[in-house]
């Protein structure tokens, strides 16, 4: 991964000026979980990364401590030392089902409403503002989804598709919000109970959205994206109801 691509990734997660340690750590955790930083990739130096994120070096350093404690990065000493991203751990489906069960129905619907608003708006703007180069990057994530063989890989490819669409809208706020939403519920959508054999169907929906971006059809791009998000949230709501029914029967 080139330095230029690293810089474009950290542009996704530039922070507000307050630069609180927990906010910095959360953003970096999101970036690693979503695959913006690859397994084994060396992070930029502390001073460079702090500059890219718009925070003080001491704040960045404290945030990296949190990531090391969570096992998300490791620090190596010596001439070729630095902070390196560790291999992600795929959570057991049982834990994800419990996370979904713990969410209230209204909260899940609210998340869906927010994501429909954010992703739909991003797609409409991307249809008007995106470039050929951005279309190619979005297509790469669709191909990654088609080749993915694990839940984590599918989740990351799906999330990166939506994040790249938001980036193509040329809106940092939309991109940051899309990242948060993908981190919050994106992995739940790829549970076996939620998607099963629907990876190809979701891939086809992504391709249709991309085609609308390429042709500059903002109305179609927004409508396809909103329907795509709505279907995913409806699947989660249905699974959650099933889990509650099982608990009541028990």
Q: Helices and strands in order, then pairings?
A:
Elements: H1 3-12, H2 21-33, H3 46-53, H4 57-69, E1 73-76, E2 82-85, H5 93-102, H6 105-129, H7 132-147, H8 151-168, H9 172-185, H10 199-215, H11 218-249
Antiparallel strand pairs: 1-2
Structure explained in plain terms:
- This protein is mainly α.
- The chain has two domains: 3-85, Winged helix-like DNA-binding domain superfamily/Winged helix DNA-binding domain (Arc Repressor Mutant, subunit A, Orthogonal Bundle); 93-249, GntR ligand-binding domain-like (Four Helix Bundle (Hemerythrin (Met), subunit A), Up-down Bundle).
- The chain has helices at 3-12, 21-33, 46-53, 57-69, 93-102, 105-129, 132-147, 151-168, 172-185, 199-215, 218-249, and strands at 73-76, 82-85.
- A hairpin with a 5-residue loop joins strand 1 (73-76) and strand 2 (82-85).
